[in-house]
Amino acid sequence: MLPLYVYHARQDDPKKCSARRMEKFGLATVYKTVGKLPRGAVLLSPIAKKALSRADLEYARRGIVVLDCTWGEVERIFPKLKPKRLEERALPYLLASNPVNYGKPFMLNSAEAFVAALYILGCAGQAREVAERFKWGETFLALNKEPLDAYASAVDSEDVISIQKDFMPE
């Protein structure tokens, strides 16, 4: 099992917060300060230069970190995490299945990001364990089955980027 961590910026509706739900079920550890995040872990970042792939499993064993904040705050908050020497990786093209962003590409909530990362890294069982705690979890896996399977078979970041072009609309 890969450790899952959340840097929680306290900007969301607590009733809709997938990170807090994951913490409640013992699936993730939530931190409110950057200093507690583990060094060398994978930080899922929409502004990363490399895509997540199985080649990142070595870093992911130290943990996978998700930033739980509003989309408008991403560019302001991510630079604060740089000093932690986290390995930044972006998730490839996937569709959200949560009620707020259903069908929107790249607009995943924290739990969807963890499910996608775990699946891509070859931890499909742990991905399903997280997904089943949410009403939309199975929908996320079904909606993204083909791309997730393809990304999970990719060798490295370049391979993932090449594969994602097959799933993106023209």
Characterization of this structure:
By secondary structure, the chain is an alpha/beta fold. It has one domain (4-164). Helices cover 36% and strands 11% of the residues. It is built from 8 helices and 5 strands. The protein has helices at residues 18-24, 57-60, 74-81, 110-120, 124-131, 137-143, 145-152, 157-164; strands at residues 4-8, 29-31, 42-44, 64-68, 87-89. Strands 2-1-4-3-5 form a 5-stranded parallel beta sheet. The protein is globular and about 40 Å long.
Characteristics of this structure?
globular; 8 helices; alpha/beta; five-stranded parallel beta sheet; 5 strands
Biggest beta sheet summary: 5 strands, parallel
> Termini separation (Å)?
37 Å
Compute the gyration radius: what is it? 14 Å
Strand order of the largest sheet: 2-1-4-3-5
- Overall morphology: globular
Beta-strand residue percentage = 5-15%
How many distinct domains? 1
Query: Which structural category do the helix and sheet elements fall into?
Result: alpha/beta
Helix content: 25-40%
Unreliable runs, pLDDT <50, ≥5 residues? none
SS summary, helix count: 8
Number of strands: 5
Order of helices and strands: EHEEHEHEHHHHH
Mean pLDDT: 88
Quick gist of this model?
With 170 residues, the chain is α/β, with parallel strands linked by helices.
